C-alpha cells in the first residue's frame, strides 16, 4: 500500500511536469464520455423494461373489426366499446383490462377553482396487471359503473394535504364521486400500457375512473377517437357503446405459451364469426402484440435518441483515439525516464504497477469530468427535446456501468502508450 | 571573404552572463583551409555558428563577401546559408527518416533547383565521397565514418564557397578520421574555403592556417600572417 | 516542400497518422450530417405557411365546468369571448375555431366528392368549425365563390357549406370549378388560398372550413386574432385577463403567436439539429486540440531536425509552411475518408430519421471549415517550433 502511494506520487509529479497535455487528455476524454453518458441515459431509460418479471406475459390484442372495406391494412390503433365487449368474453387471460385517458377538472366543492387532471378510464385488473402499488383503500371489486375514483398520491396530497383520502367526496367535472383508494408513488417508465401517439413518454395519470362510468359521463379520449360510421361522439353513453367509435386500448395477461396460442385461436374465431355476421367486410387481420414490442408496433421509437446514439458513439471513439494519441505523446516524452528507470533495475512488473497508478488517477479525473459533462448534456437535451425529460435520471446500475465504461476508457487510453514506452527495446531508447 | 571586426558574443541566462567571444578580429581569404583549435568551452563552436549565421552576435561586425550580415532578414540569411555555406557537424546531424539521397537533396530543394540538376549534383557528391552504392540506405544503417561522409556530400552538393566543420572527426576512429580529412583537403583544393574546429594537432598542422582561441579571444601567439607562414 | 517527402514524414508515424486521419474523417462525417439536418430544419421552418405568423395570435382554452361545455351555454360563451377580445385596441379581427392551424394532428377525417369516393378520397383532411371572422383573421383571399355569412348549427338539417383551400380543391376537382359541388362534408361554397393546417395530414395545405359552432370542446378550442403589427405585444399581454373577465371558469393552455406555434411544431427537429450542432462544435474543438497537440509534440521531437533544416538554408517561414502543409495534407486525406464516412453515416441516419441526401457543396464548405480550424490550431505550436535555435539543435551532446 505504501508502495502504491509512492507510485501515485510519481504519477502526480509526472503530471505536474507537463500539465497541459494531461489536462487536454482529461478534457477530451471527459467530453467524449460525458456526451456518451448523457445519451446513453436516455437510450437506457427509454428501452428499459418496466415490468421485467411479467412483460413477456402481457399482450395487446388488435383486430380489424371495423365496418369498412380495406385490403392489407393494419387494424385501427384503437378499439370500439363493442369490440372490447366481445374480446372480454374469453376466460383464457388471467387478467384483462380496457382503457383510455381523458382530461377533466377536479375539485373538492363548487367553491374551489377546478384543477385540471388527466384521467385514466379503465377497469379493475389494470392495477394488478401493471403492479400498481396501493397506499390506502381498495380497487373496485368489479368492472361495473360506480361513482368511485382512485387518486394518485400526488393528487390526494394536492387536494387534501394528506394521502389518506379514502371516503372523501369530490367533484369531477361537476359530478359527485367518492375516493375509494389512493395509490402509492407510481410512475411506470416507459409507460408501455399507453404507447399510442408516443404517450409512453408521458407521466402517470392523476386519477382513475371505471370504464363504464367514463362512458356514462361522456368522456372522449384525449389521445385518439375515431368513428367509422355516423356515431355521434357526443352520445358516448348510448351510441358510443354500440357504434364504431374507436378509442379503447386493451391488454390481456396470458401466462403460458399454451394460453397465448389459445387466445390467438379465440381471436381468429371471433374475427371469423364477425365476418360471417357481416359486421366487418375486410379480411381478418389479428395482431397479438407483446408488451416489449408495443412501442415499435405504434412506430413510437425515439428515433432522435437512436440517431444521436450512433453519433455519440462515433464521437466517443474519436475522443478515445484522440486521448490515446495525446497520452502516447506524453509517454513518449517521458520515455527516456522510463528507460532510465529500467536501466536502474525497475522490473516490468513494477513499471506496470506504476501504470496502474496512472490509470487510477486518470480514471478519477475522467469520471469526475464525464459526470459533470454528462449532467450538463442531459440538461441540454431536456431543454432541446423536452418530450424525453422523464427519462433523464440516473439509477444505480446505470451509474455503475457508466463508471465502468469510464474506467475502461481511461485504461485503454493509458495502456497502449505505456506498453510502447515500457516494452520498447531498452538500449535503443537510451541511445536515442 | 570573411571579415570579423571587434566581434563579441555574450550568452545571458537568468543566472550568469558568459562572454563566449570578445573582440574578435579575423580575416579569412578565399581558398584558405583554416584549423580552429582551443580548449573546450573556449568559444570555437560559437565562432563557427556565428560565421554560419546560425547565431547572432552582440557587438562588432561580420562582413561576408563585403556585405554585413547584421541587418539581414531571416529569409535573406537562410538564402545566404543555403547558397554560400556548408556545414559539417561532429554528430553528423543527418535526418533519420530520410534516405541518404533525400538527405543530400534537401538543401538543393531549398534552393529550388530543377530535379535533373539536383540529381546530377547528388550523384556527383556521392561519387566524391564514395557512397554511390548506399544512396537508398537510411543514416542509421551506416557506420559513423560513412555518415560523416554523407554529411560532407550534403554540405558540398550545393557547391558552397565556405565549408564550416565543427570537430568533423570527433566521433570517428583514426582511420575514418584520416579518410574524412583527405576528403576535406580534396574539397579545399577545388577552391572551397574551409574552417574546421579540431582537437587533433596533426590535423591542425595539415591545415594551411592555424587559428587558436582561448577564453573567447584569438590568441596573439598564433595570430600570424598566412603569407608569411607560407614563405617560411 | 515536396509532396513525396511530406507523405514520407506522415507515413513514418503510422499509428499517429492513422488515428489523426480517422478522427478527421469522423469529424467531417458528423459535421456534414449535422449541417444537413440543420439545413433541413431551416428549410422546414422557412417553408411558406400562407399565414401572417407574426401578427396572428392564438389562444388555446377550455371551460373548466361541464355546464359551460354544452349548448346553448357554450355558444353564448364563445360569442361573449369574441366580443370582448374584438374590443381590445389593436385587434383587427377575431374568430373562434374548434382547433388551431399549424398543428401536428387534430380533428380530421376523410373527404371525397359525393358519388366519386373511390376516385377522389383524401383520407386525412383537418375539419375546422369556425366563426365567420375566421377568414378575416387569416386574411384569406377568395379564389372562387363566396364565403358563408352565417353560422349554421351542425345539427341543423343539411350540413353547413364548406370552404376549401385551393390545393385541396385542385386535388378533388382537378381544375374544374369546385363551387356548388357536393362533397361528403357539404356543398362547396368557396375556395380560398392555402394555409398550413396539420403536419400529419395528407398534405399540409389541405383544409376544409365550415362556419358552425363546434360539436363539443372536449379537447378545448382556439381563439385566433389578427392584430395591428404595432400593438401585437400589448394585445397579447391583455388577452388572459380580458378572457378571464368574461368568464373565470376557463383554463388557458397557452397564448402564442403563430410564429411560436410554428416553431413549436418543429421543436423536435430543431432540438436534434441543435444537439448535433453542439456536438459538431465539440468535435471541431477536439480536432483542434488534437492538431495542436500533434504538432506540438511532433515539433518537440523534431527540434533537431528543424535545426538541421534551418542550418541547410530553410527559412522560418518555410519551416512553418512545412509543418502546416503536413497538417493540410493530413486534413485533405482525412477529408476524403470523411466524405466516404459521411455518405455511410447519412445512410445510417436515414434509417432512423428523415435527413436529406448529401449534396456537393456542403462537403466543400465543411472541408474548408475543417482546414481553417486545423490551420488555426497548428499555427501557434508550429510558429513556436520555427524559433528553435539551429545552433543549439545541431550541437553535439
Ligand atoms: N546556448 C548557450 N547558452 C549559454 N551559454 C552557452 C551557450 N552555448 C555556449 N555557451 C557557453 O559559451 C562558451 C563557449 O562555448 P562553445 O563555443 O560551445 O565552446 P567550444 O569551444 O567547446 O565549442 C562556453 O562557456 C559555453 O558554456
Ligand atoms: Mg564545441
Automatic annotation (TrEMBL), chain A:
<dbReference type="GO" id="GO:0005886">
    <property type="term" value="C:plasma membrane"/>
</dbReference>
<keyword id="KW-0472">Membrane</keyword>
<keyword id="KW-1133">Transmembrane helix</keyword>
<keyword id="KW-0812">Transmembrane</keyword>
<dbReference type="InterPro" id="IPR003838">
    <property type="entry name" value="ABC3_permease_C"/>
</dbReference>
<dbReference type="GO" id="GO:0022857">
    <property type="term" value="F:transmembrane transporter activity"/>
</dbReference>
<dbReference type="Pfam" id="PF12704">
    <property type="entry name" value="MacB_PCD"/>
</dbReference>
<feature type="transmembrane region" description="Helical">
    <location>
        <begin position="20"/>
        <end position="44"/>
    </location>
</feature>
<feature type="domain" description="MacB-like periplasmic core">
    <location>
        <begin position="23"/>
        <end position="263"/>
    </location>
</feature>
<feature type="transmembrane region" description="Helical">
    <location>
        <begin position="353"/>
        <end position="378"/>
    </location>
</feature>
<feature type="transmembrane region" description="Helical">
    <location>
        <begin position="307"/>
        <end position="332"/>
    </location>
</feature>
<protein>
    <submittedName>
        <fullName>ABC transporter permease</fullName>
    </submittedName>
</protein>
<dbReference type="Pfam" id="PF02687">
    <property type="entry name" value="FtsX"/>
</dbReference>
<feature type="transmembrane region" description="Helical">
    <location>
        <begin position="398"/>
        <end position="419"/>
    </location>
</feature>
<feature type="domain" description="ABC3 transporter permease C-terminal">
    <location>
        <begin position="309"/>
        <end position="422"/>
    </location>
</feature>
TrEMBL record, chain B:
<dbReference type="GO" id="GO:0016887">
    <property type="term" value="F:ATP hydrolysis activity"/>
</dbReference>
<dbReference type="GO" id="GO:0005886">
    <property type="term" value="C:plasma membrane"/>
</dbReference>
<protein>
    <submittedName>
        <fullName>ABC transporter ATP-binding protein</fullName>
    </submittedName>
</protein>
<keyword id="KW-0067">ATP-binding</keyword>
<dbReference type="GO" id="GO:1902495">
    <property type="term" value="C:transmembrane transporter complex"/>
</dbReference>
<dbReference type="GO" id="GO:0022857">
    <property type="term" value="F:transmembrane transporter activity"/>
</dbReference>
<dbReference type="InterPro" id="IPR017871">
    <property type="entry name" value="ABC_transporter-like_CS"/>
</dbReference>
<keyword id="KW-0813">Transport</keyword>
<comment type="similarity">
    <text>Belongs to the ABC transporter superfamily. Macrolide exporter (TC 3.A.1.122) family.</text>
</comment>
<dbReference type="InterPro" id="IPR027417">
    <property type="entry name" value="P-loop_NTPase"/>
</dbReference>
<dbReference type="InterPro" id="IPR003593">
    <property type="entry name" value="AAA+_ATPase"/>
</dbReference>
<keyword id="KW-0547">Nucleotide-binding</keyword>
<dbReference type="Pfam" id="PF00005">
    <property type="entry name" value="ABC_tran"/>
</dbReference>
<dbReference type="InterPro" id="IPR003439">
    <property type="entry name" value="ABC_transporter-like_ATP-bd"/>
</dbReference>
<dbReference type="GO" id="GO:0005524">
    <property type="term" value="F:ATP binding"/>
</dbReference>
TrEMBL record, chain C:
<feature type="transmembrane region" description="Helical">
    <location>
        <begin position="270"/>
        <end position="292"/>
    </location>
</feature>
<dbReference type="Pfam" id="PF12704">
    <property type="entry name" value="MacB_PCD"/>
</dbReference>
<feature type="transmembrane region" description="Helical">
    <location>
        <begin position="360"/>
        <end position="380"/>
    </location>
</feature>
<keyword id="KW-1003">Cell membrane</keyword>
<dbReference type="GO" id="GO:0005886">
    <property type="term" value="C:plasma membrane"/>
</dbReference>
<protein>
    <submittedName>
        <fullName>FtsX-like permease family protein</fullName>
    </submittedName>
</protein>
<dbReference type="InterPro" id="IPR025857">
    <property type="entry name" value="MacB_PCD"/>
</dbReference>
<keyword id="KW-0472">Membrane</keyword>
<dbReference type="Pfam" id="PF02687">
    <property type="entry name" value="FtsX"/>
</dbReference>
<feature type="transmembrane region" description="Helical">
    <location>
        <begin position="318"/>
        <end position="345"/>
    </location>
</feature>
<dbReference type="InterPro" id="IPR003838">
    <property type="entry name" value="ABC3_permease_C"/>
</dbReference>
<keyword id="KW-1133">Transmembrane helix</keyword>
<feature type="domain" description="ABC3 transporter permease C-terminal">
    <location>
        <begin position="278"/>
        <end position="390"/>
    </location>
</feature>
<dbReference type="GO" id="GO:0022857">
    <property type="term" value="F:transmembrane transporter activity"/>
</dbReference>
<comment type="similarity">
    <text>Belongs to the ABC-4 integral membrane protein family.</text>
</comment>
